[in-house]
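Collaborator request, handled under Task 6.
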Amino acid sequence: ARQAAAALDIPVLGCPVWLWHWAHPEDPRVPWERMNRIVLSEEIRRLKVDAIACLNVWGGTSRVAADGMTLTTEKVAHFIRDAELVFR
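Structure tokens returned to the collaborator:
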């Protein structure tokens, strides 16, 4: 994908979805020099909050979905922060 995008001069961004589960801030396996912070507008942040509110993982009064996934306050805070970190 990176090669095809480069041929068209289109940037490729990688979202480190699982990185936070196995890496630490100075982990040498991670190409930190390629990490970029993208500040989100208030509109985008509001849309993310609305999208999270639509998730049916809350299960009414329960925060545990049928598949056992728990959406904790900490996880919600992670998803509605003011920026996204991506790799270029």
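The cover message to the collaborator said: "The chain has one domain: 2-20+31-87. DSSP finds four helices and two strands in the chain. Please let us know whether this matches your experimental observations."
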